[in-house]
Design goal:
Radius of gyration: 25 Å
Distance between the termini: 57 Å
Strand order of the largest sheet: 1-2
Keywords: Membrane, Transmembrane, Transmembrane helix
Strand content: 5-15%
Helix content: 10-25%
């Protein structure tokens, strides 16, 4: 109880709220960084989908069979 006699509760709460408000204004906006799997990082990264499921993509080599389709990048 010795420390509490030196702290004014109203001033402490007001200062705390002001500090939270100042941090909200000063902090930069969050950015989403999209990382796509490549042969170099496929074993090093773990991904999370929109519903929160975590997964690791598996790399698998295959033979090219004549015809191929170009798949557009997803957003």
């Amino acid at each position: 109880m010795g420390v509490l006699k030196y702290i004014n509760l109203k001033v402490f709460i007001l200062s705390f709220i002001f500090g939270l408000f100042a941090m909200e204004i000063v902090m930069p906006e969050r950015q989403t960084v999209f990382v796509y799997p490549t042969p170099e990082n496929v074993n090093d990264l773990q991904y999370k989908d929109k519903v929160g499921n975590c997964f690791v993509p598996m790399q698998e080599e295959s033979d090219c069979v004549g015809k191929y389709e170009e798949i557009p990048m997803q957003k």
